[in-house]
Each structure stands twice: as structure tokens, then as C-alpha cells.
Amino acid sequence: MMEREVTGHRPRASKSAKKVVKKGLSVERYFTTPGVDPAEELAWETRTAAITGEGGATIFEQKDVEVPKSWSLLATNVVASKYFRGQLGTPARERSVRQLVSRVVETIGAWGRKDGYFASEGDAVAFEAELAHLIYRQKMSFNSPVWFNVGVEEHPQCSACFINAVGDSMDSILKLAHTEGMLFKYGSGTGSNLSKIRSSKERLSGGGEASGPVSFMRGFDAFAGVIKSGGKTRRAAKMVILDVDHPDVVEFVNCKADEEKKAWALIEAGYDGGFNVRGGAYDSVFFQNANHSVRVTDAFMRAVLEDREWKLTARTDGQALETIRARDLMRQITEAAWLCGDPGMQFDTTINAWHPCPNTDRINASNPCSEYMFLDDSACNLASLNLMHFRSIEGGFDVESFKRAVDLTILAQEILVSNAKYPTPAIGKNSEEYRPLGLGYANLGALLMASGLPYDSDAGRACAAAITSLMTGEAYAMSARIAERMGPFAGYEKNRDPFLAVIRKHAQHVDLVDPTLVEAGLLAAARDAWGDALRQGMESGYRNGQVTVLAPTGTIGFMMDCDTTGIEPDIALVKYKKLVGGGMLKIVNNTVPLALQRLGYSSEEITSVLQFIDEVETIEGAPGLRPEHAAVFDCAFKARNGTRSIHYMGHIRMMGAVQPFLSGAISKTVNMPTSATPQDIENAYLESWKLGLKAVAIYRDGCKRSQPLNTGKEQEEKKDAVEPRLARRRLPDERRSITHKFSIGGHEGYMTVGMYDDGAPGEVFITMAKEGSVVSGLMDSFATGISMALQYGVPLKVLCDKFSHTRYEPSGFTGNPDIPIAKSVTDYIFRWLALKFLPSEEGSVVSPPPLMTPGQAPARHGSSEQTVVVKSLPATNGAMNGANGVNGVNGAHVTDTDAPPCPTCGSITVRNGACYKCVNCGSTTGCS
After folding, report:
1. Is the dihedral of CA 885, 887, 891, 894 positive or negative?
2. Omega before 810 cis (within 30°)?
3. Known catalytic residue: 371?
4. Which of 411, 500, 665, 706 has the smallest C-beta neighbourhood within 10 Å, fewest atoms?
5. CA distance 294 to 243
6. How far apart are CA 409 and CA 415, in angstroms?
7. What is the rounded distance in angstroms from the CA atom of residue 760 to the CA atom of residue 865?
8. SS3 of 646, please?
């Protein structure tokens, strides 16, 4: 009974909505024609949707799936495996995108009719057609819970993001554990600020010692881990926050880093260092199921700059319990983040300065990815627009289409609010009375490149700011138009003055965008949208307490075939796609020719540049490329054979440019190189605060699955101890051997491996050229060195970890389906040895370089500090898609060296906001 009550609560209609009796809204057709089904305007085909895991095992397969021809194979796989409802293999199973879209759109349309949102039946029909057009054409997508549940359950859960309150009582703490558990069970994410819980330095009312929030976090974390392993394969999405003046803040700051060190010790002792491994190192330590953030104020940040003292105050009476140096605390924050990626920072003063409903309560927390920030005990349903589909034929931005899409999506999201269910009565009540929405966008990085604008440039930031401003201004204007017909949200009147003040502040920031760097029509439209929003809002109020955020758009980004997600730049210019029926295809980013055309290059020049990229896998040094245009093609990571990438401060500056035009915040992890220092992280945090960000999180590449630092007396004694003399294990005079022929980019070779009686390799011979040549001599010497290492007991896995993924020529396609592409001869040799002689769980993964101490120079690992992991899609019986069959993010990506494997299919994931996404099966580890 309790579970039903908690998971099935529906709010009552607000009084303000009930007393409004004006007719509903008129919906004009813009994208569609009366009497014409938008689905019939597309070409359709049937395919087999299939996902295979590591080792070729089939994880999912559904034949005869009907999809638009323009949709990629990845979009097909994601939609069929994630969103189609009904038992697989039965007639009840959905098999067409038409069924999926109709289920959701028609349900929302029916709710809109029931609740009086449409002025006439014709308006309702127009709404359904226009909304379906956006989805079929991959211009917009709702968050995953909508696709999971709408049209399946009578009152479905529609929100992906939740914020839960917790107070200083055992009853409140245990209720939070229960609420979180139910949210994790249904695949949603939640965040809480634990600062109301009294510290471990304070007394309980009965005289005993308090446990403190960090102790309770251990229980919450363990509970989340149990539910994750028992119910869902994905990691629980959770955020825990502590205020910077809490007496336990130092313990909070260091708790995850301390557990990271324990994981290192376990890895050194032989425990599995992978993620999602039951009984492995990371499964055995705390705080692996949550993101951590410290909530800081302007006063604290100024104290850091001025090197002043900072007071930690009791939760019970507000008295100072301890005084510390603010700069010392900041140093501990940045060193912990250097070590394990947490904690991030949330800037409390900025957050609440932009809060439109402060007379109700302040904003204390966020969802797991930090984009949704609103009242405690509230929820947000998300949706995102695909910016590349609002690029005009001439290469500009189609303002009118974008505005229409914003209006339709806001109306659809608004209809969902009162027809959804919520996990607790408090969340249901606040959702009904404040009605927060989370409209955002994806593919910004692709749009900027196609427009010939560098991501890290004043022009790129101005364009992004103008688009974000237009989106939020139009969203508030639409919210005000809905309020005119349906009434404002119930909490509006007591927040009217601060709400309008925030709208004015948004509008004023439009004047700070440099008009010389933005299309005049786009900036004028943004300015007009804010004028409409303020004017209409002053008359009618607003229907929604918030309207926009920038979410990571993981799975829905795949559904829309986005090249880039959220606010991110592109990862790399070159990707790889596994073809239907087998084979690999190298893909030069489809945005590159659009960008070159926009920059004025001729068709011959464009062909020459694309050929260069295809051969060298970087645009640097391409014939005819003008130096001033190189930055347009910069990506998040360095290209193979390249030196350029977007500096981490470029990511922060982009966030700073768009933040003033969002109701909420931005989900984005700022990736930093392995060589970054704690001081670099502190600079990033300080710059984020100065630029007005609401939150920031960093991730230093390679900080997970690393060897522990050698510290302590015992380890120093071990270092100084005399090592025992190693004995050589010679092979028998007669031994078994295996010879393997290989080809790398057209260069053939032979490798022979001699084995001990137990089947372990003991010697290697490599032939690649005529005897007496330089190549032959080098290969002979290299093979002899490897043979001696094996015979003196160096583990094969150590050698494979060291030499796999080194890069030099020759490189390229191999013809070996297990190793389709090699970065060098040594890369191929040691990946083949790993697959042939190591256990399967070791042979498919190579470890990253060892962790460095602060200030230590980066160790050379091949010729680059980044690791390129080539992952391909499974072969299916479907057909290729798009003009050239390479739409979307369908192949290899440059990934973090320590990205975890996908819990669904085992492929290596890539960073996506504060979480990870899988480019093979579409799974995400976040809440959206």
C-alpha cells in the first residue's frame, strides 16, 4: 500500500487553474498541411534493429522495424530497444516509429482536450500534427520517461529530474532513503542538499553525538547501489550537496577522494578495477553512486581571493564551531577533484539571484546533472530541440521555425504536468502549483562548425547566447500566453515582483551580446521575444515557474541523430562506422563540408581537404586550409596526428555566455587533460564563478582506475629493499608455436609466438620486410626484447597495457574483424596477443597510463596523452541511411582513457555531461 501511495500520487488541480474559464489556445499550422498526415510526407523502410555486446553476443534484436529512411541505424536501434513497448516477439510489441509517435502525441492531445487547452477540435488536430512533424523530422524529442510511459500507463511518470528535501530528523532522513529508492527503481535521478542535518560535531537533543551527513551518505550510497544491481543495470543517478559553511564540509570534500584511494589499494591487491563489477574494487568502496557538489556563496569565494578566514556554523543554533582559512578549504576541494573528479561546485548566491520564486523558498539543490535547479520537493520533465534542423538553406538560423517549435514543445510539456504521477505528495503538490519545465537544445557544436564559427571564439559564444536567449524568451512568452487562457501557476502571485524582476534581468543581458558578431535577425528576434514575454507576463502572469535548462541529451540525442549533445562541441572530426553486413567505413564529419562551404571554399578545395582528413585523420596541414579557419574545426579532443583541441577554459567561457539566458543551469563536465594540476582546477572554478555560472564540475582524464600513489614509511622501505634476483624461464627445446599473418594499412607481416607447455607465450618473432632492412632489424630487436621480458616473468598484461594504442605509421584497416583498425604495428601486435593469450575480461581492455602526482610531468604513452578507442556498431540486416549512410554519431569516438564500459552491452562509453553514454546501444548513466 505504501509503494502504491508513493509512486502513484497525482496532484489536484490548482485553484488558479480551476477558476479560469477562458477558452483554450489557438494552434496555427506552420509545418503541416490540413488533411495530410505528417508521417506520409516521409519515405519509410523496414530494418532489423540489433545491438551486440562485446564478444558478438546479441543483446537485442527486433526484425521488420519500420522507420523513416532518413533515420540512422543507431537511431533505429535506440528507439526500438529503449522506447518500443510490449513484449518482444508478441503482436502487442510496437514495431514502427509511427506507433511510438502516435502513442505519445495522441495521448498528449487527448489530455489537452480534456483539460481545455485547445480553443477548438481543429486546434487540437493541428497541435497533434505539428508536434508529430517535429518528432518525425528529428527536430525535437521529449525526455526518456515520456517515451517509456505516456500512452502505456493511465497516469505515467513523465519527469526525469527530481529534487528532494531532507530535514534534521531521523524520520526525514529515512523518508529520503525510501523516496530515492523508488526513484532509482523507475530509472529517474534525484538530488538533495544535506546541509540541514546537524554535523558530527553537534549534540543530539538526548545528549548523544550526532552522526553527521557524511555518515548518512554512506547508507544512502549503499542503498542506491543495491537497488541499481537488483533492479536496473544502469548506475543510480544521484546528487548530494553540502553548504560550504557546514561544520562537516571538510569531511564531505574529502570523503570520495579517500574512498578512491581505498579502491586503488584494492586494485593493487588484485581486485578488478573496472566499473559495474560486482565484488570489484569500486563496488567495494563508498560514494560511487552519486555526484558530489559543494554549495558556495559569493562571500566564500571572495574570502578565497582575499585569503581570509571562514566560519563553519552549527546547524542547531547558527553559532560558529570552527574557523578555517577559506583558501585552505578551496585547496582541499580542488585536490579532491583532481584525485577523483568530485566535488563540483554550485554557486549559491548566483543561483538564488536568478530565482524567480524566492518568496516561496530558496533554491537549495539540483538534480544529478546540475541543470535543474528549483524548489525542494519538485520535478522537471525535459525536452530538447535539435539545432541543426533549424539551419536555413542559406546557412543562417531559421528564427521563425525555431520559435514555432519552442511554442509547440512548451505547450506539450505543460499539458504533461497535471496528467503525470509523482513519487511523493510534496513533489506532486509543488509540480502542480509551480509547473517547472526544462526545454533545452542539442547539436550546438555541430551548428557552430557548420556556420563557420569556432566553438571557442567570441563569435561562437555570441551565436550560442543569441539562440539560447531566443529559446528562453520565446518559452516565457508562450508560458504567458498559456497563462492568459489557463491562468498562471498557483505560486505566481506571491512571487510576482521577483519573477518579473528576473525576466527583466534576462532581457537586459541581450544588450550585452555583441551585435556585430550575430545575425541581425536572430538578435532582433531574441530581443523581441523578451519584450513579448515581459509585456504578456505583466498582464497575464506565467503558467510555469521555470521553462529552460541545458540537459546532456544522451539517449534522446541518439534518437534525433545529433552529432553533438547539449552544449558540447564535437568530439572528433573522424569517426568509424560498421557497415551493414560487415566491414568498416571511415567517416569524415558531415559538418566539415558545410563549414568549408560557408567559409567560401570551392568544391575542388573542399574535396581536397576532405581527402586529406580521410588519409591523415586531422585537418591540420590540409592543403589550401587558411590558418585563420583552423579553429573552426577544433574539437573536444586532439585528433590523431593533430595538436589542436579546445582548451578547458573554452568550455567554461561557452557556459558563461549562455547561462544568463536559462531559467535553470547547464549540465556539462569540463574535461581536463591528465596533466592538469589542482591549481588549474582552482582557476577553472574561480573563472566559472566570475563568469556567472550556476554550477561547474570538472573531470581530469585518467583519474580513475589508476595505481595508488606510493606514500608512507612501509612503501619507502619496500622501495629501498634489495629486489630478489629474477630467474629466466627458458622454453623447452621442442615447443608448440602459432604463426599469424597480418596486414596494417596494406603493409603485411608475420608473427610467430612460441609457447611453454602450459600454453603461455614465451617468445615472439616478427617479420615485416626484407632481411637486412632497417624495419627488419628493428622488428627483430623489438621481438627479442619482448621475448626476454616474457622469459624473465614480466606479465603479458603489463606489456599489452604498455604498448597497446601506441601511434605511428603504418596504421589503418587490418582486415581482422577482432581488431579492425590498428594505430601502429605494436598496437596491433599487443592487442592480438591480449586477445589470444589473456582471459577474455582482460584481453578486451587495456589499462590507462598510471596516475600522476600533482606537478609530475606526463609519462609518454605512445605519441599522445589521449587514447582513441575504436568501437563499432553491430552488423544488422537493415539498410544504410541518409544521403551517404553516415548520419549521427555511429562509430568511434575519442574517449576518456578511463571511461567505464556500458552496463548494457559492454562497449566503452564517452563522457556526457556529468555522466556517460554508450554509442553502441544508446544507454546512458544519467537521469535524462
Report:
1. positive
2. yes
3. yes
4. 500
5. 6
6. 10
7. 31
8. coil
CB-based contacts of 200, cutoff 8 Å, min separation 6: 209, 210, 211, 212, 214, 215, 247, 248, 251
| Residue pair 25/118 in contact by the 8 Å Cβ criterion | yes
pLDDT single digits (tens) 281-304: 888 889 888 899 999 999 999 999
| Catalytic pick among 130, 202, 260, 371 | 371
- Our answer to whether residue 927 is catalytic in this structure is no
User: How, if at all, do strands 58-68 and 44-52 pair?
Assistant: antiparallel
Residues 901 and 840: their CA atoms lie apart, in Å, by 14
The full length of the chain comes to: 928
Q: Which residue has the cell 520559435?
A: 403
What burial class does residue 712 get, using C-beta atoms within 10 Å of its C-beta: 0-12 exposed, 13-18 middle, 19+ buried? exposed
- Coil, strand or helix at 108: helix
Q: Where are the beta strands (DSSP E) in 18-168?
A: 44-52, 58-68, 140-142, 161-163
What is the spatial distance between Cα 56 and Cα 59, in angstroms, rounded to a whole number? 9
Cell readout for 748 is 603485411
Cα separation values, 773 from 340, 770, 784, 786, Å: 48, 6, 17, 20
Secondary structure of the chain: what % helix, strand, coil (to 5)? Answer: 40, 15, 40
Distance CA 208, CA 512 (A): 55
By CB neighbour count within 10 A (0-12 exposed, 13-18 middle, 19+ buried), where does 160 fall? buried
Q: Which amino acid is at 219?
A: G
Q: How confident is the model at residue 805 (pLDDT cuts 50, 70, 90)?
A: confident
Contacts of 444 (CB under 8 A, 6+ apart): 387, 464, 467, 564, 566, 567, 568
66 an active-site residue? no
103/53 Cα distance (integer angstroms): 30
Which SS3 state, helix, strand or coil, does residue 148 take? helix
* 603 touches 617 (CB < 8 A): no
Burial of 593 (0-12, 13-18, 19+ CB in 10 A): middle
* Cα–Cα distance for residue pair 233/921, rounded to 1 Å: 13
Choosing from 77, 149, 193, 367, which is the catalytic residue? 367
How do residues 744-784 score in pLDDT, each as one tens digit?
888 888 899 999 988 889 999 988 876 677 878 888 888 89
d(CA 291, CA 344): 8
Catalytic hit among 369, 380, 463, 800: 369
**10 Å Cβ neighbour count for 294?**
25
Q: Which of 556, 593, 371 is nearest to 468 (CA)?
A: 371
Q: DSSP per residue over 491-550, as a string?
A: TSGGGHHHHHHHHHHHHHHGGGS-GGGS-HHHHHHHHHHHHHHHHHHHHH--S-S--B-B
How would you write 340-404 as a 3-class SS string? HCCCEEEEHHHHHHCCCCCCCCCCCCCCCCCCCCCCCCEEEEEEEEEHHHHECCCCCECHHHHHH
CB-based burial label for 455 (10 Å; 0-12, 13-18, 19+): buried
pLDDT over threshold 90, residue 447: yes
CB proximity list for 169: less than 8 A, separation 6 or greater? none
C-alpha Rg value of the chain to the nearest Å: 28
Residue 79: strand pairing partners: none
Asked if residue 567 lies in contact with residue 464, where contact means CB atoms within 8 angstroms, the answer is yes
Q: In the chain, what is the straight-line distance between the N-terminal and C-terminal CA atoms, in Å? A: 29
Q: Residue 135: in which H helix or E strand, if any? A: helix 121-136
At residue 472 the predicted structure's pLDDT band, cuts being 50, 70 and 90, is: very high
Give the least confident one: 194-208, 490-504, 547-561, 874-888. Answer: 874-888
Cβ neighbors of 499 (< 8 A, separation 6 or more) are 356, 357, 492, 537, 542
C-beta neighbour count of 514 within 10 angstroms: 13
